[in-house]
Amino acid sequence: MSGVTIELRNVSVDYGQRQAVESVDAVLRSGELVTLLGPNGAGKSTLLRCASGTLRPTSGSVLIDNVPIDEYARGSLARRVAVVPGQTIIAFPMRVEELVALGRLPHEHPLLGPRAADRAAIDTAIERVGVSHLRTRDVRELSLGERQLVVLAMAVAQGARLLLLDEPTVHLDLRHQVSVMELLRDLSTRDGVTVLAVMHDVALATHFFPRLLLLDGGRLVADGPPASVLTPQRIQDVYGVDASLVAIGGG
Amino acid sequence: MSAEAAASRAAIARPTWLDGLRHRPLALGVAGLGLVGVVFVVGIALGNVAIAPADTLAILARRLLGWPLEVSWPASAETIVLELRLPRVVMAMIVGVGLSLAGATFQGLLRNPLADPYVLGTASGAALGAAIALLLPVQVALLGFGLLHLFAFVGALAAVAVVYRLSRLGALNSLTSVLLTGYAVGSLLAAGLAMTMYISGSNLRQIFFYLLGSFSLASWPQVVVGVPIILVGSVVIVSRARSLNGLLLGEETAAHLGLDVRQERLLLLGAASLVTAAAVAMSGLIGFVGLVVPHLVRLVVGPNARMLLPLSAIYGAAFLALADLAARIPGELPVGVVTAVVGAPFFLYLLRRYRAGYEL
Fold first, then answer.
1. Is A109 exposed, middle or buried (0-12, 13-18, 19+ CB in 10 A)?
2. Residues B342, B187: Cα–Cα separation, whole Å
3. Mean confidence (pLDDT) of chain A
4. What is the ipTM of this complex?
5. pLDDT per residue as tens digits for the range A67-88
6. Shortest Cα–Cα distance, A148 to chain B (Å)
7. Residues near A162 by beta carbon (within 8 Å), at least 6 away in sequence
8. Does B356 touch chain A (CB under 8 A)?
9. Which residue, among B350, B342, B348, has the nearest Cα to B325 in the 3D structure?
10. Is A111 among the domain residues?
11. What mean pLDDT value characterizes chain B?
């Protein structure tokens, strides 16, 4: 259970003049549930893009299961790392079950397509995320929140050991926020999936995530349990607001 | 999207028979092949001189399958069937396959429901090439091929190559950039075409005829050269169904699903352009097939390319061969006119009826 799933080693990203991410070091062990917090423009999404291999760091390296990320064949990386993007644009009419089925792409036979195991994984994912009632609906008819759940189901169907999420709860109502958090917790404890999620809702994040990474101006300013990371002084420094505005649970 | 809009969309119910068909792609495929078979025979039997369907079948069975049937038909019937109608129907079908697959590919690749095989300038490139060929004082013809075919083919491919190269230079997001560059290059080529037509004077009618599309000049040499090109491109496209599926949610998601996006995009773009160029060179500009057929199929079976591509190919073949039949019954109308006259209203009806509700 304690193998390292992903290691960020001195990762920096330059966007021209601006340094978006600066010398970030972090190690996530398998089954860990970690959130990435920080104000707008802190470099959270950029760091997530490095972790998924979408963006190559200007310097430093990313290791997945102790192997540098760019040494993986694309298919084999996709079987290890699943990504839930912030938004998904869907150009054609598509049913929920068809969208979730796309998550099996890295597993299915290149010519023959999905097999029995793939169909089983699709069914399980739909059920676990709790979108069975939406199965045959057109994705574009759904509310933004429902759509977000469906995209999450697609990532679950992908069956990866590392799940990277960009603000998975942003359009969800309170009940669905909690159920997504519980699903992530379940994935990490029951299936040993490592979860790294960018979150904006500090209160929700501190309640559900045992470990927080706090980014500010591209630097990792704190890493640890909520109580030690989100001290009143740090909230003042990083977010520029009084700590009493942020209700912190779990600590 | 507002909640209201969502509710109004949800209220539009699909008829149940349509839903019943959705999970029977095999039945749809078999029915489509049956339709292709019927259209094949009828397309050979009908025309200026009608030939009895029984005789048509007998001639085909004797000459193509080698059945030892007694000859009970005039020799002229055999010539008409084998030298005129057969290559014509084969060509209409293969061009139907090619345009439908190219349309489905461009729609998927550019994630734009309005994309058709000509979206990246192939049409204007081919038209300009053909017009220049007609303007040249030299006229070479070899086995039914003239400079026109060659220039049209090269013009179409050159236009796509230019669009692709130029779109890589822009700072825009790659899809928008490709579409806008295609539009700009297309407009430029259209201006060139207009200029060429203006200069050409007496050849105007010939260029015009070519632009409207027709299978009336189909011949075996054309089939022998054109069909393999379209077939190869089509096989490449159908074998990349998985990639087209991955690209449904955008290039970044496709990469997360393990696809080599750059390579797949180039492969699909290349294959679809090759198919379109060959189709345009053989038969001129035939609109609406590549737009409507994939949409119709998508409406029934959904966006999964594993079903969308083979079914588009089958129904595209049947549709264009039927359109060609309709074009020659009243005495050689341009087939592009027929596809537009049939395709456009039908497409509008579908859009209204089922509100495909595309988000752009």
1. exposed
2. 26
3. 90
4. 0.89
5. 999 999 999 999 999 999 988 8
6. 13
7. A5, A6, A28, A64, A80, A81, A82, A193, A194, A196
8. yes
9. B342
10. no
11. 85
What pLDDT was estimated at residue A32? Answer: 95
Give the nearest partner residue to A102 out of B1, B245, B252, using CB atoms: B245
pLDDT in tens, B336-347: 889 988 888 877
Instruction: Find the domain containing B195 and state its range.
Output: 80-354
Q: What is the pLDDT of residues A178-219, one digit of tens each?
A: 989 999 999 999 999 999 999 988 889 999 999 999 999 999
* Chain A to chain B Cβ contacts (< 8 Å): 101
- B239 within a domain of the structure (yes/no): yes
Q: Is residue B163 part of a domain?
A: yes
Please return the burial class of B225, using the count of CB atoms within 10 Å of its CB with bins 0-12, 13-18 and 19+: middle
Nearest-Å Rg of the Cα atoms of chain B is: 21
> Identity (one letter) of the amino acid at A154?
M
Q: Specify if A64 maps to a domain.
A: yes
* Interchain proximity B256–A82, CB inside 8 Å: yes
Number of domains in chain B: 1
Q: Nearest C-alpha of chain A: how many angstroms from B2?
A: 8
A130 located within any domain: no
CA distance B182 to B109: 14
- Position B32 in a domain: no
For residue B302, give the chain A residue with the closest CA. A94
The residues facing A59 across adjacent strands are: A12
Domain count, chain A: 1
Establish if B351 touches chain A: CB-CB under 8 angstroms: no
Domain extent for A170: 4-87+159-245
Rg (CA), chain A: 18
- Tell whether the model's pLDDT for residue B239 goes beyond 50: yes
Residue carrying the six token digits 């395709």: B343
Say which of A74, A137, A138 has its CB closest to residue B259.
A74
Q: What is the pTM of this model?
A: 0.88
pLDDT grade, residue A247 (50/70/90)?
low
Dump the DSSP string for B244-282: HHHHTT-HHHHHHTT--HHHHHHHHHHHHHHHHHHHHHH
In a domain, B13, yes or no: no
Read off the CATH number of the domain in which A189 is found.
Answer: 3.40.50.300
Q: In this structure, what CATH number is given to the domain that contains residue B95?
A: 1.10.3470.10
- Tokens (6 digits) for B326: 């309709």
Q: Residue A29: what residue type? A: R
Q: Taking CB atoms and an 8 Å limit, are A103 and B257 in contact across chains? A: yes
Q: Name, in order, each residue with C-beta under 8 angstroms of B159's C-beta and a sequence gap of 6 or more.
A: B120, B121, B122, B124, B125, B126, B185, B186, B189
**CA dihedral for B57, B63, B69, B74, sign (positive or negative):** positive
B contact residues 234-253, partner A, Cβ 8 Å cutoff = 239, 241-242, 245-246, 248-250, 252-253
In chain B, which residue's Cα lies nearest the Cα of A73? B258
Which chain B residues in 69-88 lie under 8 Å from chain A, judged by CB atoms? none
